[in-house]
Amino acid sequence: MTAMHRCLPSALAGSLIAGVAMSFGQTSAPEALAPLFNSATPVVALAALVALACRGGWWAHALLGASAGPLAMVGYYATTSLRGFPVGMRMVGFWVVAGVVSGLVMGVAVWLLQGHGDPVLRGVAAGAFPAVALGEAAHGLRRIADTTPSSYWWVQAAVGVAVLAWLMVARLTSWPARLAAVAVAVLGARALFAVYGMA
Question: Residue 120: which region, alpha, beta or left (left: phi > 0; alpha: psi -120 to 50)?
Fold first, then answer.
């Protein structure tokens, strides 16, 4: 049995459990932490962590990442429904698909940032998570600050900047790669902010 096959069940079970925790956290967490359990950035981070949990080629990382998000959503929505809260199938479908796409991207990004592929592609990969964190934080601050704590979104934005800075120093070795990381983070954040505005 390969290392990936050994870690796969626990990694994916962890995603499902994280989804269950999100459902309970959404209704019981302190107000300052409530968005943590109802936003995309933690799910994207989960996909990256699951992809990191196992060794393998790019396809293995992509598979793990693309599985983590949907499983978290299944855990979240199934638990929410069992707890008696209404669940719309349109939202389930949308977030499961979003989980697959974002998880796939994060899985490949994790593989690239482990030292594989072209250096500039690694720069593109380094901008992926910060783009989500910053774009969603901007949405929180600009559009829903009256119903959610703005302090949370400022912290999320700071985390996005910190992750970007750390990856640029620790994982990227050339200025073209670092510029690519900044460009992806900024342009990706703007694109996500626009998408959230259409939701």
Answer: alpha
How buried is residue 29: exposed, middle or buried, by Cβ count under 10 Å (0-12/13-18/19+)?
A: middle
Largest CA distance in the chain: 53
First to last CA, the chain: 44
- Count of other CB atoms within 10 angstroms of residue 88: 9
DSSP H helices, the chain, are 3-28, 40-53, 58-82, 89-113, 119-126, 128-143, 150-170, 175-198
Distance between CA atoms of residues 77 and 88, nearest Å: 9
pLDDT at 56: 79
The three-point CA angle 10-12-16 to 5° equals 110
Binning pLDDT at 50, 70 and 90, where does residue 80 land?
A: very high
> Which amino acid is residue 70, in one-letter code?
P
| Model confidence, pTM | 0.91
**Tokens describing residue 48:** 């990256």
- Compute the distance between CA of residue 130 and CA of residue 191 in angstroms, rounded to an integer: 13
Region of residue 39 (phi > 0: left; psi between -120 and 50: alpha; otherwise: beta): beta
